[in-house]
Specification:
The protein is of the alpha/beta class and about 120 residues long. It has helices at about 1-5, 20-30, 60-65, 70-85, 100-105; strands spanning about 10-15, 35-40, 50-55, 85-95. It has 5 helices and 4 strands; from the N terminus they run H-E-H-E-E-H-H-E-H. Strand 1, helix 2 and strand 2 form a beta-alpha-beta unit. This is Methyltransferase type 11 domain-containing protein. One of its GO terms (biological process) is methylation. Keywords: Methyltransferase, Transferase.
Length: about 120
C-alpha cells in the first residue's frame, strides 16, 4: 500500500496465503492499478519478462527455514528471473546478514548485478 500511496501503479502483490490476500483486498482491492493475487512463488504463471521490479520482503528468509531450502530457493530464483524483465530490478529485503544470502544470488544462471544496502544497525 505504501508504494501505491507514493504514486506507483501497476502493482501486483502475490502471496500463497488466501487469508493474507483476502485482508489486502479489504484494504485496497478496489484501487485501480493495484492487484492482490493468491499464488505460489514456485508456480507463478505470469508470462516471461512481465515485471520491471520484484520486491521480496522476507520470503527467502521463510524459504530457508523450511523443508528442502536449497532446492526451493533455487526454484524461487528461477521463477523470479523468468518473470523479471532483462533490465528489471530484484530487491530482496532480509533480516539476515548479506553473507548468508549472497551465495544464492551469485549464480551463473542469473547474470544480475548485485549490490548490498544496509538499513538501521
Amino acid at each position: 500500500m505504501d508504494l501505491y500511496s507514493d504514486g506507483f501503479s501497476d502493482i501486483v502483490s502475490v502471496d500463497f496465503s488466501k487469508t493474507a490476500i483476502s485482508e489486502m483486498n479489504k484494504l485496497g482491492g478496489d484501487k485501480p492499478g493495484l492487484a492482490f493475487i493468491e499464488m505460489d512463488l514456485l508456480e507463478m504463471n505470469f508470462p516471461k519478462n512481465t515485471f520491471d521490479c520484484i520486491i521480496d520482503k522476507a520470503t527467502m528468509d521463510i524459504i530457508l527455514c523450511g523443508d528442502e531450502p536449497i532446492k526451493t530457493i533455487q526454484n524461487a530464483f528461477k521463477n523470479i528471473y523468468r518473470v523479471l524483465r532483462p533490465s528489471g530490478v530484484f530487491m530482496m529485503l532480509s533480516y539476515a546478514k548479506s553473507q548468508l544470502r549472497l551465495p544464492f544470488l551469485k549464480n551463473k544462471q542469473y547474470p544480475w548485478d548485485i549490490s548490498v544496502e544496509t538499513c538501521g544497525k
